[in-house]
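tokens incoming
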């Protein structure tokens, strides 16, 4: 590196790690991307409290990688003739509740463009030409009258995280974000499109407008409205949660912009290292309880430890059994 006249990698990496310093200012509205997030974080942001843990360089690079994936999807939608709008600001506000605003990724639908000439002009790698040809062929055969307008929310992730999404488990925050755009645009269907950054696999989880998802959406806004108007800082998030049949670190804590201020951790790695070994032990004991294995002295001590955070451990074990029974049935 020292002998190079110039460095492309240095310019590239430096540009991706640049972040625009925007002072946190008080506001009386929510971003769509905040729906389903920690109430305490939202409260502090809306009150104008400066974060103690802004995005680090790695987070910025991941963010830009996501933008790149989103751009590729947009180009294919555009050349396929089904892109109706992108990055459109969408607001929605219930009476007496906080306004929610955000920019949708894509609104797609209509009659596809079956002329591949314009698609090939993109100059993208052969992989994308091949994928687009397959997409258009599928649309032509299955939807000869065109496609209904649909919200597309694009999310990129690691291959490890992708596995959960690929089983149909959408992030509840992403569901609420996509539903906000559906609600604001008066559209009955939305899709969350997950792309694995490691191997370019894609999975898609559909959301249909229904009373259950709207109730979740409205309840979240109503609770945040009450917190904001009462002007009382809500409780901190629990650091360990039980989710989908296992104990895990609470991602709402790990990714908090106020990780140091609220929880005392220097950074995300410090938080994760604190609980990594403990959670492994908890899940090992939980698995033995689910299987009905004989409890060792270490298991019994671990159970006492778990009960300090989860006094309803019997219910947790019951839920874990149901979850694993469901997963086994799906694999079969």
């Amino acid at each position: 590196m020292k002998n190079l006249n110039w460095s492309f990698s240095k310019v590239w990496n430096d540009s991706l790690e640049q972040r625009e310093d925007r002072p946190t200012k008080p506001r009386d509205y929510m971003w769509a991307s905040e729906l389903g997030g920690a109430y305490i974080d939202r409260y502090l942001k809306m009150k104008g409290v400066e974060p103690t843990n802004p995005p680090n360089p790695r987070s910025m690079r991941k963010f830009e990688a996501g933008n790149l994936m989103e751009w590729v999807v947009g180009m294919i939608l555009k050349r396929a003739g089904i892109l109706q709008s992108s990055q459109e600001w969408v607001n929605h506000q219930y009476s007496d509740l906080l306004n929610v605003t955000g920019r949708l990724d894509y609104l797609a639908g209509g009659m596809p463009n079956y002329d591949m000439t314009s698609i090939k002009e993109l100059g993208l790698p052969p992989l994308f030409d091949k994928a687009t040809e397959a997409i258009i062929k599928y649309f032509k055969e299955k939807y000869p009258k065109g496609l209904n307008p649909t919200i597309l929310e694009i999310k990129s992730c690691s291959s490890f995280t992708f596995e959960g999404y690929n089983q149909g488990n959408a992030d509840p925050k992403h569901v609420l974000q996509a539903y906000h755009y559906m609600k604001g645009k008066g559209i009955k269907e939305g899709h969350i499109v997950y792309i694995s950054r490691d191997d370019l696999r894609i999975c898609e989880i559909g959301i249909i407008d229904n009373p259950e998802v709207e109730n979740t959406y409205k309840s979240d806004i109503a609770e945040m409205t009450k917190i904001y108007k009462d002007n009382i800082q809500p409780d901190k998030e629990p650091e360990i949660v039980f989710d989908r049949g296992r104990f895990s670190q609470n991602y709402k804590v790990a990714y908090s912009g106020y990780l140091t201020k609220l929880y005392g951790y220097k950074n995300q790695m410090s938080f994760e290292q604190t609980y990594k070994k403990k959670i492994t032990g908890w899940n090992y004991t939980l698995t033995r309880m689910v299987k009905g294995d004989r409890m060792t002295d270490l298991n019994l001590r671990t159970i006492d430890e778990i009960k300090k955070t989860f006094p309803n451990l019997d219910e947790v074990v019951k839920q874990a059994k149901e979850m694993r029974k469901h997963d086994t049935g799906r694999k079969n």
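note: The mean pLDDT is 90.
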